[in-house]
Amino acid sequence: MNLVSPTVATAGPVATDGVVAAGVYVDGRRIANIAIDEAASWRGRPGHVVWIGLHEPDIALLNSLQRQFQLHDLAIEDADHAHQRPKIEQYGDALFIVARTAQLDGDSIAFGETHLFVGEGYIVSVRHGASTSYTPVRERCESCPRALARGEDYILYAILDFIVDNYSPVLETIQDEVETMEAEVLASAMTRSQIERLYLLRRDLLRLRNAIGPLVEVCRRLERDDLPMVRETMRPLFRDVTDHVRTIQERIDALREVLAFAFEASLLVGQAQETAISKKLASWLAIVAVPTAIAGIYGMNFKNMPELQWEYGYFAVIGLILTVCGGLFWRFRRAGWL
């Protein structure tokens, strides 16, 4: 059974030169859509929050972003090259966070990255690779201005929570296939293609676990450390994300154990089938050996074999063969070998 999923896509508005959306919010309500070059002037106004979403921007756009928000060179370098582990870095009064995203691409898991810049009056998300658009996050936040009015750390929480939520559809699809595979393995030994599929599933699950594992530490720091831009009232929300990530890890570990048990069960089923076949072959060989041995004895052409001259010798030998073979068949059948 193969995973059924659409090809990886980035749903949502089409990015223009890497910019998906850029808006300014006051008291949780969008008051204007802006250009990147205008971000600094809006960010400096009291009570204003600039929220920018980028998708695979080029270095020129990142440099423009750096000038607007005075971002650190190392953070910009990471955002340009991608291929980073989940982490959180503090540069002055700003935070740089990396999270891994995952989507199903055919029969395998495709991974992407999201880089988040968070500072006073702004938050910027940069998506790379396989990742769902964060337009639903923006729409959900805008539908509840009271929550969005909390500021940059609430938007950060909403994005991280959305990333973790998107792991669940991947696991649910894999779980359906694993349950089907688990049911089939008890019926018969696994074929080569099934074993290869099982190996690929375990490998993808391990990659997924390695991708999201460090996110626990990221959320832990957000909920416990005294970081800039994260208010104490927001820490319970980040604690909820941490618990969610750990739940995902437990589900991954459970699925990997099931796959390991399925493989072991398949080996046991295969060995049991081989043993049953060996018993049948040994039984029939023992039965066939009786007439073969008797025929071999009388095929030696010795002269002094009295029973050769006996009138009923042929019938006696045939009866002996049938009796011994029948007795062996009955014993093997009773023992479960036949």
Overall description:
- With 338 residues, the protein is an alpha+beta fold.
- Among the domains are: 10-148, CorA soluble domain-like (Beta Polymerase, domain 2), CATH 3.30.460.20; 275-334, Methane Monooxygenase Hydroxylase, Chain G, domain 1 (Up-down Bundle).
- Helix content is 56%, strand content 17%.
- It contains ten helices and seven strands.
- It has helices at residues 39-43, 59-69, 73-81, 135-142, 145-148, 152-165, 167-185, 192-224, 235-298, 313-334; strands at residues 19-26, 29-33, 48-55, 87-91, 94-105, 108-119, 122-129.
- Strands 2-1-3-7-6-5-4 form a seven-stranded mixed β-sheet, sandwiched between helices.
- A hairpin with a 2-residue loop joins strand 4 and strand 5.
- The protein is rod-shaped, with a radius of gyration of 35 Å.
- It starts with 18 loop residues before the first strand and ends with a helix.
- 30% of the residues are buried.
- Mean pLDDT is 83; it is low at 1-12.
